[in-house]
Amino acid sequence: MDTLKAIAGRSSVRAYTDEQVSAENLNTVLEAGCAAPVGMGQYDKMHITVVQDKGLLSRISATVQQMMQRPGDPLYGAPTLIMISSAEMPMPGLDYADGSCIAENMQLAAMELGLGSVIIWAAGIAANADPELKKDLGIPDGNKAVISIVLGTPAVQPPEKKLGVTIDVNYVR
Predict the structure, then answer these.
(1) CATH at residue 121
(2) How many Cβ atoms are within 10 Å of 163's Cβ, its own excluded?
(3) What's the average model confidence in pLDDT over 95-124?
(4) Does residue 158 sit within a domain?
(5) How high does pLDDT run on average in the chain?
(6) Fewest 10 Å CB contacts: which of 83, 95, 102, 108?
(7) How many Cα neighbours within 13 Å face the side chain of 84?
(8) Cα 87 from Cα 70, distance rounded (Å)
(9) Given this model, what pLDDT does residue 28 score?
(10) Residue 166 located in a structural domain
(11) Is the pLDDT of residue 127 over 60?
(12) Please, which pLDDT band fits residue 158 given cuts at 50, 70 and 90?
């Protein structure tokens, strides 16, 4: 797939079927994430947790619902959640920047495979706030969750999009 077409076509999906992501597709998504740039090449400071256990997904969903005080499933019924965590980095914010690069690579790969995805920021907040949940997720000691995505087959195909400048831009020349 053309890179610009993939970038234009990627959108946030907020409704999924029950169909689990195949092992092959999941591996491709994870490989794409692992190909992302990481500041100072410190890949050993990053960690990826894949959650497909329905009970644990329900627990994460309930924790996020309680924290955010909003109804509905904040994981949108997706069968897979991928949480990216990081050990302490030498520069502030580098953990979030690296996690975001990893997440976006995974989302672009997912789009190419016909899968949907959306960032679930609050899942990481929930894991960091609940030591028992963090432990059950297998997040390494000393790491904090920085960003998560959910992944699955979209219940409805997103509309086709084209590239365009939609954010205010100023030029300093």
Answers:
(1) 3.40.109.10
(2) 10
(3) 96
(4) no
(5) 95
(6) 108
(7) 29
(8) 30
(9) 98
(10) no
(11) yes
(12) confident
Indicate the residue type of 48: I
Domain, as residue range, for 105: 3-152
70: amino acid identity, one letter: R
Average pLDDT value for residue range 61-77 = 93
Count of domains forming the chain? 1
> Is residue 33 helix, strand or coil?
helix
Q: Is 119 exposed, middle or buried (0-12, 13-18, 19+ CB in 10 A)?
A: middle
Give 161's contacts (C-beta < 8 A, 6+ positions apart). 8, 9, 11
Residue 164 lies in a domain: no
Contact 9/160 with Cβ under 8 angstroms?
Answer: yes
Share of the chain above pLDDT 70, in %: 99
Q: Is residue 35 one of the residues assigned to a domain?
A: yes
SS3 132: helix
Q: Over range 23-32, report the average pLDDT.
A: 98
Contact 99, 146 (CB under 8 A): yes
- Spatial separation of the C-alpha atoms in residues 109 and 103, rounded to whole Å: 10
3-class secondary-structure state, position 126: helix
